[in-house]
Write a structure and sequence with these properties.
- The protein is of the alpha+beta class.
- It contains seven helices and seven strands.
- A seven-stranded mixed sheet has the order 1-2-3-4-5-7-6.
- α1 (about 5-20) packs antiparallel against α2 (about 25-45).
- The chain is elongated and about 70 Å long.
């Protein structure tokens, strides 16, 4: 097998692998790389319809990547909805992803959580945040879960920093989930800081 055949097969393999990804950002990036490789490969061997198709697919991927990255921190793209802990849709989301939730949050059990939030991007649910009152104006996060497709993003930030869902309830600080207390670049980026054995976020004051 010559070098160009290896390159062609490699590009095709990348496109196939990209379609197996659950994360949207990773899917688009791998698909883009595969399409670029196949554009070059088909240029060399002179298969012009494949050059055109892969070039168009590459442009589509670039546009989608640009939109995803441009709006990943845009609060106009996301909405935070407070729901009851026994809300039927919330229960469905948690049940549908129970195995994934237990993998990253061993021991988590849904109870009568006073504060439950769904993070929405359009019609799609991208994350769930559950919390309870820990006293002294502090909200303790019990669960911060992001659905697999959006795991390259940080939708929880719209609950912690770009929403008044906690301050409206009289909270002044948010405590990180116990499993994330040791080290979490994600929480550090959101402004959490260490306070004794806890990671704490100071909420903005009016």
């Amino acid at each position: 097998m010559d070098v160009w055949s290896i390159i062609g097969w490699g590009g095709s393999a990348l496109v196939v692998v990209s379609l197996l990804q659950t994360r949207i950002l990773r899917l688009r990036l791998l698909n883009l790389i595969g399409c670029i490789i196949l554009v070059g490969f088909n240029l060399v061997i002179g298969v012009w319809p494949m050059v055109g198709m892969n070039a168009v697919l590459a442009v589509i991927n670039v546009v989608h990547l640009w939109r995803l990255l441009r709006h990943r921190h845009d609060d106009a793209e996301y909405a935070v909805l407070r729901v009851n802990s026994d809300d039927a849709y919330l229960t469905h989301v948690l049940a549908a992803h129970s195995r994934d939730i237990s993998r990253f949050n061993p021991g988590f059990v849904l109870g009568r959580t006073p504060y439950a939030f769904l993070v929405q991007r359009g019609e799609s649910t991208v994350g769930v945040v559950l919390a309870h009152d820990a006293g002294s104006g502090r909200a303790q996060i019990d669960l911060d879960y992001v659905l697999p497709a959006y795991r390259d993003f940080t939708p929880g930030e719209f609950v912690y920093r770009r929403s008044d869902v906690f301050t409206d309830q009289g909270f002044t600080q948010v405590l990180a989930p116990p499993r994330m207390r040791d080290s979490s670049p994600y929480l550090n980026r959101l402004g959490f800081h260490r306070d004794g054995n806890a990671l704490v976020l100071d909420l903005p004051k009016d």
